[in-house]
UniProtKB/TrEMBL annotation:
Quaternary structure, from the entry: Homotetramer.
Annotated protein name in UniProt: Thymidine kinase
Residues annotated for Zn(2+) binding in this entry: 145, 147, 182, 185
Organism, as annotated: Glaciecola siphonariae
NCBIfam families xrefs: PRK04296.1-5
Top-level taxonomy: Bacteria, Pseudomonadati, Pseudomonadota, Gammaproteobacteria, Alteromonadales
Amino acid sequence: MAQLYFYYSAMNAGKSTSLLQSAYNYKERGMQVALFTVAFDNRFGEGKIASRIGLSSPAHLFNENTHLYNEIASLHEQSPLGCIFIDEAQFLSKAQVQQCLRVVDELDIPVLAYGLRTDFQAQTFEGSHYLLAWADKLSELKTVCHCGRKANFVARLNEAGDVIASGEQIEIGGNERYVSLCRKHFTEKTGFNRDT
């Protein structure tokens, strides 16, 4: 029985590396897979999932208008799929998470979604919110703060490398724009939860 999995973390926990390794395992066993990533993040090239350690693979793109169920059903009709992998799953819409549930329930294909739990203001992204609520299995991929504690928050940096606490929810960037922090250091640097 297929299930929807959500692997979540702060940045730099190896989400893309884990996704690419799992996809490789399916392919090594002779199974077809489909990989998806968000269209507006082209830091590593368009239609590509890449990890910081050098692994990469071509991927289908999704945006706010992509009907994932229809696209996956069409791919599955062409060649039976053993698994679906979604990188940057925090950018899925509520409807797209529901479409992933249909892929699992109606097409009986496992969906493994990888993404951030929260943004730089400690708010869940829409995709993460519904994946946390509806996924059959949740798994946290861990990374560490500079102090050695588990990092479960992402802070945004300005050009000078200082933590900032305001701005648009979505701004693409890597280590030059974001840093993963434990709750203590996130609170110290952003003032999060100081008003209560």
